Amino acid sequence: MNTQKPTLRRLGQDDTESLISYLESDRHNNLFHLSNLDQLSFDHPDLRYFGAFQPDGDWAGELMLFRTSAGVYWQDRRVLPYFKDIILREKARAISGQKDQVNPLLNLLPDGVISERISATYAVVGNDDLLPWAERGERPATLDDCDLLADLYARNLLFGKLDWDKHRARIESVLTTGGIITLIERDGLAVSAARTSAIGHGMAMIGGVITLPAYRQMGLARACTGLLSRQLIERGLDSCLTYNSADPAASRTYLGLGYRTIDEWTIAFLEP
Questions:
Q1: Is residue 116 part of a domain?
Q2: In this structure, are 61 and 131 located in the same domain?
Q3: Contact at 8 Å (CB) between 250 and 206?
Q4: pLDDT value at position 169?
Q5: Model pTM?
Q6: Less crowded by CB within 10 Å, the N or C end of the chain?
Q7: What is the pLDDT of residues 83-107, one digit of tens each?
């Protein structure tokens, strides 16, 4: 039995090929790790990767930090104290990923650091699985819709922690970096939308599915997600998302579109 502990270092450009190969071994669960590297590269000031290695040079684990969010992938649990220290030092505000990867790390954090822990279902739909839906006037967004969409996200409590200008900036960033947003308008307002939160390596993650309260139970979220899923599939991408399986409306929406479960996901919010 090897008693030597893994070593940890920050990764750089020279590690790109090896890191991609390592992450591709569980590509769906490493979607954010791969897509961020693909879209932003090691040079981006908001993106950092740390690698843990066995004495023989084999990978033991990897930690990604993007802005204040973290993700982990590991095989040797001896790397978790290292990752815990980085998360606390860098004041990460959220951790998300496959339950069996994230929960053991969360269990090492001091009492009071975790403000909320959410369990979700991670699902994917491909070309042969996507089911039809009732159309509700959904359409792809353009840059001309940025103000409408910022109004929608800023007035919803779930997405209301950012001010209007930051919502608009993020929406514009999605649309100018290869992402897709779909929306439905009613009464001069964007009342429902869905958008990509990551794209890369043949996969895309859908996030930010939202409908104003007065327009719910009308199939609008299903229509926005359905159109977005179809457009991703037409690009040759697996369409992925997470949802709360205890929420009947969410389950109906995504199962009704043909999404199938591939894993359980944990999302944790941390106090600084």
A1: no
A2: no
A3: no
A4: 94
A5: 0.90
A6: N
A7: 999 999 999 999 999 999 999 999 9
